[in-house]
Write a structure and sequence with these properties.
Blueprint (H helix, E strand, L loop, with lengths): L2 E7 L4 E6 L13 E12 L2 E12 L3 E5 L6 H8 L5 E8 L2 E2 L5 H6 L2 E4 L11 H6 L9 H11 L16 H13 L5 E5 L7 H16 L3 E5 L3 H7 L2 E6 L2 E7 H5 L2 H9 L1
Parallel strand pairs: 5-10, 5-11, 8-9, 9-10
Antiparallel strand pairs: 1-2, 3-4, 3-6, 6-7, 11-12
Helix pairs in contact: 5-6
Amino acid sequence: MSARARSPDLHSGRVDYVRCGEPGALLESIVVTVLALRGLHAGYGGVPVVRGLDFTVAAGEVVALLGPNGAGKTTILSTISGLLPGIAGEVEIMGRPTDSQHPFRVARRGVAHVPEDRSLFFSLTVMENLQVVGGIRRRDRHRAYERVFDLFPGLRPLQARKAGLLSGGEQQMLAMARAVITEPDLLLVDEMSLGLAPVAVEKMLPVVRRVADEGAAVVIVEQHIHLALELADRAVVIANGRVVVEGQASALRHDLSRIREGYFG
């Protein structure tokens, strides 16, 4: 991993990161667990879709959640971000359980979620969609806007355009920009490539990798297995609400039979 924790602030839930080799960097063996799911049961109306889920994601790591439709991948992300209350078990951010009844409190802990539907304000402009994001101090806003336009240069000339008039790829870039503008400790991305042309997806993949390389933990749900395994460090395959395969993405790329077995049993 390229980023490590320095002086974690357990009261704020945030961590400062340095690259190994920089002055003040900690030993490379230190790994900071940003997200931990412990015996998580999650679902709807008290009926679990996900059962007994256990896995962790470290700072600087991208983990891909794979699995067939209806396996519970979106349910997992929604439960992590507090949009859906868990049924049993725990979701921990930086070693502390989250408050699943109040999503805004989870966001304040440094969690950003890009949902499958993008959740943009279509009647607002690109810039207005960025301006309504909370958690950025006034004196830091100009730097934050410049950072996202550096990450997504295609959005810079579209600042005055309403989000509803953007192409699918431009809308996804804006949804990603809204998430990363706060420099989250944990980024959750649900079906980034859904409905997009390959060229649009290719523009966003380096951004996800850069966010992780700068120290964030990243969880992606992705329907394209090869795409996910190219981007991720590890992959977790969910089927029937349980983890059926877990391993390094590089190893799974060369042994897709394990992925197929996870999907089809």
